[in-house]
Design a protein that fits this description.
The chain is 21% helix and 34% strand. By secondary structure, it is of the alpha/beta class. The chain has a domain of 94 residues: Beta Barrel (Elongation Factor Tu (Ef-tu), domain 3), CATH 2.40.30.10. The strands form 3 sheets. Strands 4-3-7-1-2-6-5 form a 7-stranded antiparallel beta sheet. It has a 6-stranded mixed beta sheet with strand order 10-9-8-11-12-15, with helices on both faces. The chain has a two-stranded antiparallel sheet with strand order 13-14. Helix 3 links the parallel strand 9 and strand 10. The longest helix is centred in the C-terminal third of the chain and has 15 residues. The two termini are 31 Å apart. The relative contact order is 0.15.
Length: 261
């Protein structure tokens, strides 16, 4: 892992609660994998003292850019909105273990809620590049929060939207959709991020259907380098339950192994 000073190409508000940032990534030496994250310094002030982790929203290899779609909800992200084009941003990364796409997975399902949708967007991008069919169920409070839907559709994904606003995001309805789509699209693997409720649902369904699944966990982090143990989660191993660090052993895990609380 390395620290980089990256040029901000744009940083714009795209809805009431979300901003979109594009960085020049030509100086990044390591390959970037969907599901990985960057730990970003969100300002020069004492607060926030710690960096903030941001999942990669989109990777453009040709133009040498990376993008982040972020929810403004605390001191760090409020500070991040103050950065302008041509400013330099201090980033550490890419960090963590990303998603895996096996060669025989010719059709995948994505299930995401809220800002977790942004985490799965880069995976949909990779799936398109590998001619893997992708169907996505995106859940949010309202349609205004489904900002990545058009991005996924641009990658060729079939997108189903469910929202609290329309009364379609309940577990029963999502379960029906997942089960129908697995059959209809011949889904070979599933991926999720953004909701423990939906992750538990997908864990149950994929276990029953014997379909491999992966989850990108969202946790508060201190150092993001495995030292502070602030982002520990529990996974099931053959010998019992084991505590692991989301920033190092994750953030992507096999869904069947994760103990979801």
């Amino acid at each position: 892992m390395k620290t980089y000073q990256l040029e901000i190409l744009s940083n714009i508000q795209v809805s009431e609660r979300y901003w979109h940032m594009t960085l020049n990534s030509e100086n990044i030496e390591e390959p970037i994998v969907p599901g990985q994250f960057f730990n970003i310094k969100c300002g020069e002030d004492e607060l926030p003292f710690l960096r903030r982790p941001f999942s990669i929203y989109r990777i453009n290899q040709e133009e040498k850019t990376i993008e982040f779609l972020y929810l403004v909800k605390g001191a760090g992200t409020v500070n991040l909105t103050k950065f302008k084009a041509d400013d330099q941003l201090d980033v550490l990364g890419p960090l963590g273990i990303g998603f895996r796409l096996e060669e025989d997975w010719d059709s995948i399902l994505l299930l995401a809620r809220g800002v977790g949708i942004a985490t799965l967007a880069a995976l949909a991008q990779e799936a398109a590049a590998k001619n893997v069919k992708c169907v996505a169920i995106l859940s949010a409070r309202s349609n205004n929060d489904l900002l990545a839907a058009e991005t996924l559709q641009g990658f060729g994904a079939t997108v189903i939207k469910v929202t609290e606003e329309e009364g379609t995001s309940g577990v029963e309805n999502v379960q029906r959709l997942v089960e129908e789509l697995i059959v209809e699209h011949g889904v070979k693997a599933a991926f999720t991020c953004g909701s423990m409720r939906l992750s538990r649902l997908l864990q149950k369904i994929t276990f029953k259907e014997n379909i491999p699944a992966q989850i990108a966990l969202e946790e508060h982090m201190g150092c993001a380098m495995g030292v502070c143990y602030a982002c520990v989660c529990n996974i099931r191993e053959s010998h019992g339950i084991k505590s692991v660090r989301v920033c190092i052993e994750g953030p992507v895990f096999d869904l069947e192994k994760v103990v979801l609380t």
